[in-house]
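Look over what follows to help learners.
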Amino acid sequence: MNKLLFLALIIFVIFNANAQETKSIIVKTSQTIEEFEVLKHNKKVKNGAYLKKTIREDRVVAKGQFINNKKIGVWDFFDFRTGDLEQRFDFDRNKCLFLNLESSEQNHFIQNGEWILEKLDTIPVVIGGLSNLKLDLIDEAYKCTEKALYMNSSIADQFPKAGFAIFSFVVTKSGEAKNFKILLSSGNTFEDELLKIIEDTRNDWLPGIYKRETVDTEFLIPMYVKYIVNTKIEKLYTIDFDYPKIE
């Protein structure tokens, strides 16, 4: 019996060792390239080192480690425009270790049941960095454009010179994002599709802080799009995350 138990134990160890074998995967989008490990027996499960870079500048925007599709340990997130470290987050302790925040003069938040317009001590922060969220928005806009042109290439000449949108939502004192809406839009920026990308972050926020207390805060993401159509009738554009320049 002891020999049988020992043999079963050996088989169990060998099986689990093989089950955790991984293979390298590369995923490209219009803006980024991701390099990560997945389980050989289940390619949907990330397990190992993860690296995300911009394609054009070859600039690292995120790096860390996965275990069974879960982020573990300390991750670094970088601004895709400058390469500067934007955020360092410890997923084991659910704690932000470093923040390089975009400043804001005033914020709209609730205190004692009333909306107030003042500067917060700390603005709401999305885990993974606001820069990475904006990069996802740019990538989604490219996907929408490619799909539109595939369906009807003649629409390229119909794109206007510029477009804009302002997205609004509330980050609660518990860190949940809700009440997503398009506050203002020119109606030509695929704003409905982009809003869905923002909605996917609903559970990934740290709340704003005012006088050492967390508060419900309105968060705005403005977007200004400049359209350019090249000679191949391909849709090209640039996106700035500044308040709209009405043309």
About this structure: Confidence is low (pLDDT under 50) at residues 10-15. The helical segments are 2-19, 130-151, 191-199.
